[in-house]
Design goal:
This protein has about 550 residues and is an alpha/beta fold. It folds into four domains: about 120 residues, no CATH class; about 90 residues, no CATH class; about 40 residues, no CATH class; about 200 residues, Rossmann fold (3-Layer(aba) Sandwich), CATH 3.40.50. Helix content is about 50%, strand content about 15%. The strands form six sheets. It has a six-stranded mixed beta sheet, sandwiched between helices. Strands 7-8-17 form a three-stranded antiparallel beta sheet. The longest helix is centred in the middle third of the chain and has 23 residues. The chain starts with 19 loop residues before the first helix and ends with a strand.
């Protein structure tokens, strides 16, 4: 069960502002599910989001409206307004009774003035306010009654508002607590204010909503949430995370998403777990300034100058040398930097975009890993080439800048791994390297393919329950053979353990000599990243 903690607010709006990067983190979680930036923003407005750094959950517009609706229902069930105008009616009857007696004393029973008064008093009327209005121009004979009627006349606008409210919403009140006239007016004003707030929230007119008014009705958390929702998009634009009318993510936002994705993936790894891709061949040597060791014969002379000189000073001091004398160096004083020997590689990640990837959290996990790998390559292995190719019925290269908004192909159940391999083959050919590799993330066997003879695109449902698509499998394996002859390694990460998928992947690995892993969505990042780093890093030192 989720538990949300609301922080205490002192009522000052100036001290309460949105951390746009925390909002971007919340948006990223939604975009991993396949939403665009604009869709994610709207979802956050409507359904709320959590700000982890502030230990606070922002209430969405739907939740705020639900809270207001709950307040309304509470008032409807608590009060009865059936007799809310009785007090005003009794006041008017008392005033008119005294005026009738005064008219009789002044004009008698049969006068025209008396007849006019009686006709006004006893004529049928639908609203109490209309009855009051009839006597607006009446010349009262009773001075006190006239003064009291003037007070009643001053109240006629509020009375009309209450009467109209009762006509529209009076039937909703079913409570046992009878409200008098003033209580009814307060109830009316509160309900109309809440309904106006609900309308503004529904329409997204957040600038029209007073945080103080919302605070009075729903408390501090609601007022804080309103401020954060109101400033959500503006703050993200001001901090350079959104741009355009749509809106869309800026390069800065995309870099932040990549860094967070990489941090999330690494966060699942046990410390010290990532290995290195070992090899006997040398690549490009990169110094490690944080690690040094004594020089040995045959080592490249990449000296740690400070460490080397300090070794000479210590050796001279140990021999009783004079302070401040010139230091001479011996070979045993030499301290050198450790080296990492790396090789350049071209990696193409094939990401299944078929409809089934939307199940069981498969696509968000795969997409997060793709973004994390791009961040890893750009920041740690900048000489490498990394590409992402999406495939369902057709395959296409996915530009890295568009990756955060990529979604599965809605309603497309077919899987054209063959074309995905073709696109990967082309990209590797355009960016050759000594150790190209293809990483496949999929949850299903091939069901779409191009015929080698005609070049026609075909789709093919599996033959029976648990069966395979024989033509799609055959054409895909033919492409695997061609890719293998070009020296490309194919490693496959399966997000489903269906026998038909396992059987196909086993045949593919037999041809390619690559490897296959079955992984749940939650473990995919750990498996893939550890394997990539382990195979990417060459031998340290000589």
């Amino acid at each position: 069960m989720a538990v949300w903690r609301y922080s205490r607010w002192d009522g000052s709006l100036d001290e309460f502002s949105l951390d746009a990067k925390q909002a971007l983190d919340a948006m990223t979680d939604l975009m991993m599910e396949g939403l665009t930036a604009q869709e994610a923003l709207e979802w956050m407005r409507q359904h709320g989001f959590e700000l982890g750094g502030m230990n606070f959950r922002v209430m969405g517009l739907e939740e705020l409206r639900d809270e207001l609706r709950g307040q309304l229902e509470s008032m409807y069930s608590q009060y009865s307004l059936d007799h809310s105008t009785d007090e005003m009616s009794e006041r008017l009857d008392d005033i008119l009774a005294r005026e009738e007696e005064a008219q009789r004393r002044r004009h008698g029973y049969e006068s025209a003035a008396m007849n006019d008064f009686l006709e006004r008093r006893h004529a049928p009327v639908d609203r109490l306010s209309d009855k009051v209005e009839r006597f607006r121009d009446h010349e009262f004979a009773d001075t006190e009654a006239a003064e009291e009627f003037a007070e009643l006349l001053d109240e006629i606008d509020r009375l009309r508002e209450l009467e109209q409210f009762l006509e529209q919403q009076g039937d909703r009140f079913s409570g046992r607590a009878d409200a008098d006239y003033e209580q009814a007016q307060e109830i009316r004003e509160q309900i109309e204010a809440m309904q106006q707030l609900m309308q503004d929230l529904q329409a997204g007119n957040l600038e029209q909503v007073s945080p103080e008014a919302l605070r009075e009705l729903l408390g501090d958390a609601a007022a804080q949430s309103l401020v954060l929702l109101r400033d959500l998009e503006g703050s993200m634009r001001e901090q350079g995370l959104l741009r355009g009318d749509s809106p869309e993510l800026t390069p800065r936002a995309i870099r932040h998403i990549g860094a967070q994705a990489l941090a999330d993936v690494y966060g699942t790894l046990r410390k010290g777990r990532p290995g290195r891709h070992e090899t006997t061949a040398r690549g490009v040597a990169m110094p490690r300034p944080d690690e040094t060791r004594p020089w040995e014969f045959g080592d490249p002379l990449d000296l740690d100058i400070v460490g080397t000189v300090m070794n000479g000073v210590k050796r001279r001091a140990a021999m009783g040398g004079e302070a401040g004398a010139r230091v001479s160096l011996e070979p045993e004083d030499f301290q050198i930097h450790e080296m990492d020997f790396n090789t350049q590689t071209t990696t193409v990640l094939l990401l299944d975009l078929s409809w089934s990837m939307s199940w069981a959290g498969r696509f968000p996990a795969a997409k997060r890993v793709a973004i994390a790998m791009d961040q890893l390559v750009r920041t740690r292995y900048p000489r490498d080439h990394f590409f992402v190719v999406g495939f369902s019925t057709r395959a296409r290269e996915l530009p890295i800048r568009e990756l955060p908004e990529v979604s599965w192909d809605m309603g497309d159940p077919f899987t054209n791994l063959q074309e995905g391999l073709m696109v990967a083959e082309r990209l590797i050919g355009e960016h050759p390297s000594p150790s190209p590799q293809i990483i496949v993330i999929t949850d299903g066997q091939p069901t779409a393919y191009f015929e080698s003879a005609t070049g026609d695109l075909n789709v093919e449902w599996p033959m029976g329950m648990g069966g395979v698509s024989p033509n799609a499998v055959a054409e895909t394996l033919s492409t695997v053979r061609r890719v293998t002859r070009k020296g490309c390694t194919i490693n496959t990460f399966m997000l489903d353990d269906a026998p038909e998928l396992v059987g196909f992947v086993e045949r593919m690995t037999q041809i390619n000599r690559g490897r296959a892993f079955f992984s749940s969505p939650g473990q995919l990042g750990s498996f893939l990243m550890v394997d990539y780093i382990a195979r990417r890093k060459l031998r340290r030192g000589v």
